[in-house]
Amino acid sequence: MNLTVFGIGYVGLVQAAVLAEVGHQVVCVDIDASKVERLNQGFVPIFEPGLESLVKENHAAGRIKFTTDAAAAVRHGEIQMIAVGTPP
């Protein structure tokens, strides 16, 4: 299934990585262009046990993508998930 996750912080990134791991095609969108660029380069900005390998493996496999283009992300997803404004 094609899924979109808005917000790639603590909640959104973990959620997206797990969904990609079970086989979904996930597009993550965020307004922070530097965060998106770092994720596309393989840098995972938060620590959660096992998260870095999940993100890197699924990104390499093409199951998880990161963008700032909200319109493209909406077109991609059959389901839109919102994970913004979550407390640290």
In brief:
By secondary structure, the protein is of the alpha/beta class.
Low-confidence stretches: none
Oligomer: single chain
Query: What's the CATH architecture name?
Result: 3-Layer(aba) Sandwich
Biggest beta sheet summary: 4 strands, parallel
Shape: globular
What count of domains describes the coordinates?
A: 1
Query: How many beta-strand segments?
Result: 4
- Estimated helix fraction: 40-55%
Secondary-structure topology with pairs:
Layout: E1 2-6, H1 10-21, E2 25-29, H2 33-40, H3 51-60, E3 64-67, H4 70-76, E4 79-82
Parallel strand pairs: 1-2, 1-4, 2-3
Helix pairs in contact: 1-3
Structure write-up:
By secondary structure, the chain is α/β, with parallel strands linked by helices. The protein has a single domain, classed as Rossmann fold. The chain is 42% helix and 20% strand. It has four helices and four strands, in the order E-H-E-H-H-E-H-E. Strands 3-2-1-4 form a four-stranded parallel beta sheet, sandwiched between helices. Strand 1, helix 1 and strand 2 form a beta-alpha-beta unit. Helix 1 crosses helix 3. It starts with a strand and ends in a 6-residue tail after the last strand.
